[in-house]
Every structure is written in structure tokens, then in C-alpha cells.
Amino acid sequence: MIRTPLRPLARILQARQKGENPDRIERENIRLRHEEMRDKMRQRAESRLLFTGVFFVLAFLMIGARMTVLASTEAAEPRASTSGANIVAQRSDIVDRNGRVLATNLITNSLYAQPHLMIEPERAAKELVAIFPDLNLERLNKDFSGSRKFLWIKKKLSPEQMQAVHDIGDPGLLFGPREMRLYPNGKLAAHVLGGASFGREGVHSAEVIGTAGVEKAFDNYLRDPAMDGAPLRLSLDMTIQAASRQVLEGGMKLMNAKGATSILMDVHTGEVISMISLPDFDPNTRPNGLIKGDPSDSPLFNRAVQGVYELGSTFKIFAAAQALDIGLVNPNTMINTKGPMQKGRFRIRDFHNYGPQLSVTDIIVKSSNIGTARMALDIGAKRQKEFLKSLGFFDSTPVELVEANGAKPLLPKKWADIHTMTVSYGHGMAASPLHLAAAYSTMVNGGTLVKPTLLKQQTVEKGPRVISERTSAQARTMLREVVKRGTASFARVPGYEVGGKTGTADKPKPKGGYYKDKVIATFASAFPMSDPKYVLIVTLDEPSENSGKKPRRTAGWTAVPVAAEMIRRTAPLLGLRPELDRGELSKVVNTASE
């Protein structure tokens, strides 16, 4: 720094020569120096004031922003740091074909205790038992007074329960946020949805995993973050499901049945529009499975998929269709039905004496065991097995339910001639109602294989051909005649051209043999038969219609009326307009004037 001298020699000499006072120069320089120093100090002070002001403004802005964030968030318990991977609790919704929610997520809270932080453990235990009566007071007191550092009390809390626990005021009772699965329709579609529970659990989150039904079958899809919350769309229609369940439940009670199931399927796409199994359960409070006894007695048992039954005379249309398709017979071919039919030590009889012979059509209409068995013998065991295998009766159904894998049809160990005969009319071989629904769809849709699915289909892809279109048309005519003048006359629903086949099979005993007074009654139907759209299967377990002098257990008296009412209720909901039966067109007289 260069400082100007107060008494510069040059200016002093000049002042003396001019006779001026040299001290004036010194005073002037001192004044200028002081002014310079004053300006520098002012500038420095102004800079410091500006910096301080900016600092305080920024500090107050940060404090205000933090206070805003705290005020806008909910209070939460302090979180301890943990190691390991984060638990992903996100799970996609499940909806029906029209977008109605079947399963979704609900934010709730869990309750846990840290006994070492509790102030009054005995009082807290007593008040917890008052809020949750299922808790054991003695057990809680023991846990709270022991050496445990952590204790789960409740995995899910309602808002009211959470507030009641909060009012206890003990710092050792803590809450953890979590996501739970909610089924807003309760029991409706319970067996299809299955249920979900918690997998890996942490204090602040829990992993929701599927335990049964589509929840388990599509567990990876529903938990995949890459799906970005896209819902899983099923083929079910909840309007149809609700109407069908109401009818089936009423029919089960009227027919005094132990259980019941129904399946409504699109004959072209294989989409399951409705699937019901009774008794059922609420997936929000899914019960535990049976430890002992018959698994089918559990409400968790899905009779539509897991129920493997001898389905009786519903199988007769398969023998007739195969015989027609390979050219052994035509619908009017006469078959010997004189009985009883002897095969070794076995005798095959009909429910009624139908005379010495019947046409193929009347064998189906009147449900002749003897006539069907004779056609099956002409077909032969090898061709019969190949045909039933092509219909899917040798494997589990490919439907998207984890329970389906364990429901493989029961087949004869040795396929002798007697088995060829009995299988043709639905005895000696057991399958699920869903197997039957898929096979009947193939019979009436023109002859192409149908695979059942619970996912909504965007396009229709025809499966491999099983029977010709001509055979399929002939089978439809026979099934229609069964309703018009056969064993399913109670299935007449005006305007919807219902066709179908009844089946009544004695129920097998657990240790061999058959009950004499317990049956499985099934009605396999399709509508409208002029252009089939849907197949409906109704199966009743141990039905008994008791309005007459003697109990009536056959499908014609039990399953058929239930199916008819179900069609009457659901057909309009499916968008099917009632039409005049083609057979009645000849009765219409044109009376309009020219």
C-alpha cells in the first residue's frame, strides 16, 4: 500500500517560495486521508450488514419450510435404522371384466410393544384385553414383565382400535404403518380370489403375498413394481356372479344338498364368466383348513375345480358324438337296448325299460346306459381313451388357479371292456365340473377344443378340432331334445333354447363301494342351442328333493330346476334377447291384412 506523505517536500518548497504557510498542506493531507479511511469503513460496514441480512432471510425461509412440512405430515413413531433389503408392500388391484374392484389395498396400522419402555405394563395389558377380547391377559402380563424387547400384539388395526390403544398413553405401545388386502365383495368369488396374507414382516411395512386362488397364481404379477399398479383383469362378471350365487344358494337349501357348484363359461373363448362353490367363506377373514376329516367339508374347498366326481350320464354325449364323428352311426341309427346287458360278472341296467332298441338320439334323450355302452364297445377302448384325452379329461385343467394342479381326473388303472362301457355313461372315471364345462363347450361350439381361463380375452383363438362341425350340430340337436322331451324337461326357459344332459351318479364311500342314498347330481347345459354362447354346469352334492312321498335325488329333479332358474336370471344380464323357439314358428299365423 502506497501512502501519500503528509508534508511532501516539493509542495513545501513551492509554498515557502510563494510565502505560504507549509502547515496548511499537512492539515489538508490529513483531512483527505481521514475522508478516505471513513469511506472504506462505511463500505465495509454496509457489506457486513448486507451479508447478515441475507443470512437471516435464508435461515427463516428454511425454518418456515421445515415447519410447513412437519405441519402437513401425520405423526409417526420414531424409526430405528435397520439393515437389509426394503420390504415392498405394493400390490396391484384385481378387477372383473368390467373393471369392478374385486381386491384392493387398504392402509392400516399394526400394534407392537417394547416392554422395556412401558411405564405401567399391568394396566396396559388390562386395557388391551378390553379392546381386543381375543387376547389373553395372563399371557400379556407374562410377556410385558419378561425379558422380551419386542412383541407383536395385532398385525391389523381398525382406526377405532388404534385410537383406543393410543388413549392408553403408554410409550411402550407403538404403531407401525402397513398395507393389507381388502376384498370389498366379501364372499362373492371367494374361491376364485383365494386370499392373501403377510410374508416378510417389519415394524414399518409387511410383504403381502397370495395364499390361494388367483392371488397366489398371479403373485409375481401382482407384486411386480414394473406393472406400475396396472390391475389384473379377470373374466368374471360380478353381476352374473352375484345373481348365480343367490340362485345356487337358494337351490342348495331347497334341495337339501351338502354342497353345490356352478360354472358359466363362454363356449368360444373359454372365459369363466361365473364360478361358484358352496359353502364358501369371506377372504377378508379366511379360515384355517381342516386338520382332519374330509377336505371337501371345508368351506375352502373349491368344488368347481378340486371336486373330482363321477359325473354320470353327462358323459353319454361324448360317446354319441364320437360314434357319429367316426361314422359308426347317425342320429337315427337303431341300437339294441335290451337288458340287462351282461359283461362277465357285471350287469348293466337302465333306469327304466326302454324296449328292445332305441335310436342314437333317443339313447341320449332317455339316457340309456345299455345303448351308450354298446356304442362304446363298437368305438373300442383305444379310440375312446384318445377321444377323452383330446377333450382334456386326462390332465388337470389349465385354469389359472393353484388348486387346479392337484385336481387330476381319476382314471381306471386297466382300461378293460367293462371300463369302456361304464366310462361311456360317467362311472368308473371321475373329473371336475370345470373339465365338464370345457368338454361341453367343445361339443357345442362347432367342435374346436376350449381351454378354460379366468383372464379376460381380447381375441378369440380357435383350438384344435376335436369333432366336425356336422357332429357338433348333431350333438346340439340331441341336447336340445333332452330338454324338449327328455330327462331335463324342467330346464325349459322360454326364449333361450336351452339344451343339456342330466347326470346322476352314486356317491362313492371312502373305503370302497357306493352309497345307496347319496348321489352327485349334475346338469350340463348350453344356450341358446341355435347359436350357443354359454355352457352352464350345475352340480349338487347329496341333494334330496322331499316334496313328494319319497325323496327324489336324480338330477332331473334337483340340479335341472336350479340351472333353469339360473339361466332365467342371468341370460338377460348377459345381453341375450329372448327369441321364439324355431320349433314353434310353424304355429305362428300371419293375420295381417294385405
Give the topology, please.
Layout: H1 9-18, H2 23-72, E1 94-95, E2 101-113, H3 121-131, H4 137-145, E3 151-157, H5 159-168, E4 173-182, H6 190-193, E5 195-201, E6 206-212, H7 213-217, H8 219-223, E7 232-233, H9 238-254, E8 259-266, E9 272-278, H10 316-325, E10 334-336, E11 341-343, E12 346-348, E13 357-359, H11 360-366, H12 369-379, H13 381-390, H14 417-424, H15 433-444, H16 469-485, E14 499-508, E15 514-527, E16 534-541, H17 559-573
Helix pairs in contact: 3-4, 3-5, 9-17, 10-12, 10-16, 11-16, 12-14
Output the keywords.
594 residues; alpha+beta; Penicillin-binding protein 2a (Domain 2); Beta-lactamase; 2 domains; five-stranded mixed sheet; 17 helices
Question: Pairing-aware structural class of the strands and helices?
Answer: alpha+beta
Number of strands: 16
CATH class of the largest domain: Alpha Beta
CATH architecture of the largest domain: 3-Layer(aba) Sandwich
The helical percent reads 25-40%
Number of helices: 17
CATH superfamily of the largest domain: DD-peptidase/beta-lactamase superfamily
Distance between the termini: 127 Å
Question: What's the structural domain tally?
Answer: 2
CATH topology of the largest domain: Beta-lactamase
| Relative strand content | 15-25%
The mean pLDDT is 88
Largest sheet: 5 strands, mixed
CA gyration radius, whole angstroms: 41 Å
Q: Estimate the global geometry from the Cα principal axes.
A: elongated
**Uncertain regions: pLDDT < 50 for 5+ in a row?**
78-85, 588-594
Main location: membrane
GO molecular function: carboxypeptidase activity; penicillin binding
Domain Penicillin-binding protein transpeptidase: 262-550
GO cellular component, one term: plasma membrane
